[in-house]
Amino acid sequence: MTVQDAQPKSLFAAQEKIYPQRVFGKFRLIKWLVLGVLLGLYYVMPWLRWDRGEGVPDQALLVDLPGRRAYFFWIEIWPQEVYYFAGILMLGAFGLFLATALLGRVWCGFTCPQTVWTDLFLFVERWIEGDRNKRIKLDKEPLGVRKIGLKLAKHGVWLLIALLTGGAWAMYFNDAPTLVREFVTGQASSAQYGFIALFTGTTYLLAGWAREQVCIYMCPWPRFQSAMFDERTMLVTYEEWRGEPRGKVKALGAGGEKLGDCIDCGLCHHVCPTGVDIRLGQQLACIGCGLCIDACNGVMAKIGRPTELITYDSLYNQAQRAANLPAKHRFIRPRTMLYAAIIALIGAAMVLSLGTRSRLDVSLQADRSPIFVRLSNGDIQNGYSIKILNMVREDAQYDIKVSGIEQIRLKVIGQPGSLVSVPGDSVGTFRMLLHAPASALSDDSTPIKVTIEDQTTHETSSHDAVFRGPAK
Amino acid sequence: MAEVERDLATGVQTTGHEWDGIKELNNPLPRWWLLVFYACVIYGLGYTVFYPAWPSLSGYTKGILGYNSHADYYTDAAAAAEGKKQFTDRIETLGVDQISQDPQLLEFSLAGGQAVFNENCAQCHGVGGQGLRFYPVLADDNWIWGGRLADIEQTVRHGIRNADDPEARQSLMPSFGVDGLLDKAQIADVTEYVVSLTGAEFDAAAKDRGAKVFAENCVVCHGENAAGNKELGAPSLTSNIWQFTGDRAAFAAHINAPRHGVMPAWQGRLSDDLIKMVTVYVHSLGGGQ
Ligand code: SF4
Ligand code: SF4
Predict the structure, then answer these.
(1) CB B49 within 8 A of CB B63
(2) Which chain A residue has the Cα nearest residue B7?
(3) Less packed terminus of chain A by CB within 10 Å, N or C?
(4) Has this prediction a pTM greater than 0.80?
(5) Chain A contacts of B9, Cβ < 8 Å?
(6) What is the pLDDT of residues A175-223, one digit of tens each?
(7) Are strands A12-13 and B29-30 parallel, antiparallel or unpaired?
(8) Sheet order of strands, A419-422 included
(9) B108-167 pLDDT per residue, tens
(10) Closest residue to B33, CB basis, from A217, A277, A369
């Protein structure tokens, strides 16, 4: 066939509706457990309380955007510490790489929110409309009272779940009990209603309607996840060497051609939430959920054949088995070790920095105009803005000291001496003047160090700066 | 019908197109995605109807929602002013000394005063008060009229040598040469005396003669030891800082026919709270006394 006489084909195809069939088995059970734990955590966590004292939010997990703070149990994050967030993202990314290198798309198949909520929505669908065949029949039926009733019921439950989901998301950014009260009594802000509506809408749309379309067309992760695979990665595989040639059960042992174990029942295809026929090989649409394994194992048990015709296996093992050579799993590989090492490194850096981070910080900015002034007695004066971050809850008093030039004198605007007070959990901004005799300066720029000391805890923090003067 | 061919690696059907042995896979985009694209186009067009968008020869379409970012800005500005009110109200009732004693008001005034200063004062005194030629530095400790908060406030309110305001600070150094109060030799002598105060090299005999001239003519304002008199606005001649002068020729020229700096009164142009805020800011620049 040449390009010229090829059939004109549409570039766009109507979506083929998928009707995943119910399945029992070990992966289905794992998926239910994971779903239960994850959704439980998601809905319950905003309700956990954590006593932080007067006037501070007592929600264990809270991203307080207007207050510019994030609270994670005993950890408080200030805006300039968002690198912890970057660290968590990096841990997430490398964790994903590691899991993928070891076990293929376990994230996609078991823990991805899209998968988890779709699973929940499918459960509701199956509960109300029945299993695969019933649903196919129902969709072919002409519109009638029963059909409308079932559809309404399904979408109603879906919307309810979506609302709970969207509402819970908003609770991570607002005090949960207050938000619920205000939401119910109509006192929440329009922004809050708007965001909850947005999250409700997207949940309903993505988990109810888009489903596998998200995995196949929207999600960027499938585009490059195969870069984390190698021949030792455990993947959901159809053991083709054993299954082929496939054929109906009746043909088995009928004397003629010797058939493989696959009886071509199509069940593995019917249970697949993304509509994949795994027997065609590795495919972008396969999210590695393992449901086809459960399905086929059921079939194999029924016809008295060894299970695991579809199974978690590596391509290397598959080739070995096909050639009747010993197969072996290997998890320790350079790639997995590298990912694990990076995770350990980032994790250690984060724990270390969290453990040793100072709750006191000082920053300094020198005046740029004038860079320096000459005083009437010939001394040189520099002006600075000094910011002291007091990240604990108690008010504190700090003593400012300057070193680097011997005869340097310090004056803080609005203060009689070098002591300044900063209320708890806030930033104190002060204007500081330093002056020194011209003779004490080494050049047009002399390095100095500004140190502040907490008068109660004797904790210190310092900042390097320069003192500018006329060129020598 | 042609036999459907599948790609072995992916299990996807091919389109039948083949180039140099590479077969094109048939992965049609779902139609709903195309529809989403059309929906976005329609949304985009709708947006330009609802909001200001299309330019025209005499302006632009206003949009049927009546929204524009200027109105948004004014709303925000009003809200910000409302938020500042708790501070500005207190600033209006308190004096500059009290304001500078209150850490909160001080911080507020320094920030606000800086904005006022940069908008109204920086043209002459420079951003940050570093001074420009003939306009005094405000960041040093050399004050002609005094550097206490009250002094600065008075200067800001009424200005200097400002004919429109009777309370403006006035001081006029006589034009000793031009008006014939001193002759050339006397000016040269008294110049030498002033030079001697700066620590530069000088002619001792001329300086001694000049000291006498100084005692007779200049001490009234500049004081016995030439330390100046802030009541009269007579600058100290012993400091290291000179507004107009700095060398022998300039001293002589100044004694012959002095320059007189002028500053406008800001009362009436700036509101009361802004005057207090800019006063506190200037006081903080480096030389506040
Ligand atoms: S092919 Fe199997 S593992 Fe892959 S998505 Fe379908 S059911 Fe899950
Ligand atoms: S479920 Fe098993 S036996 Fe049935 S078609 Fe799939 S691989 Fe073959």
Answers:
(1) yes
(2) A280
(3) C
(4) no
(5) 281-282
(6) 999 999 999 999 999 999 999 999 999 999 999 999 999 999 899 999 8
(7) parallel
(8) A419-422, A396-403, A445-454, A460-468
(9) 999 999 999 999 999 999 998 888 888 888 988 888 888 899 999 999 999 999 888 888
(10) A217
Whether ligand 1 lies within 6 angstroms of the CB of A278 is answered as: yes
Looking at residue B224, the DSSP 8-state letter turns out to be T
How many Å lie between the alpha carbon of A165 and the closest alpha carbon of chain B?
25
- Contact residues on chain A for B6, CB-CB shorter than 8 A: 280
* Integer Cα distance of B100 and A301 in angstroms: 87
Tokens (6 digits) for B71: 């109105």
Crossing angle (nearest 10°) for helices B272-284 and B69-93: 80
Please state, in angstroms and rounded to a whole number, the distance separating the CA atoms of residues A40 and A60.
Answer: 16
User: Is B100 an interface residue toward A (CB < 8 Å)?
Assistant: yes
Alpha carbons A352 and A344: distance in angstroms, whole number? 12
Q: Which ligand is nearest to the CA of A271?
A: 1
Q: How far is CA B163 from CA A202, A469, B170, B175, B243, in A?
A: 70, 39, 9, 19, 22
Strand, coil or helix: B171: coil
A383/B286 touch (CB, cutoff 8 Å), yes or no: yes
Domains and CATH numbers, chain B: 14-60 (no CATH), 71-168+263-283 (1.10.760.10), 184-256 (1.10.760.10)
Asked if A447 contacts A404 with a C-beta cutoff of 8 angstroms, the reply is yes
Contact A10 B28 (CB under 8 A): yes
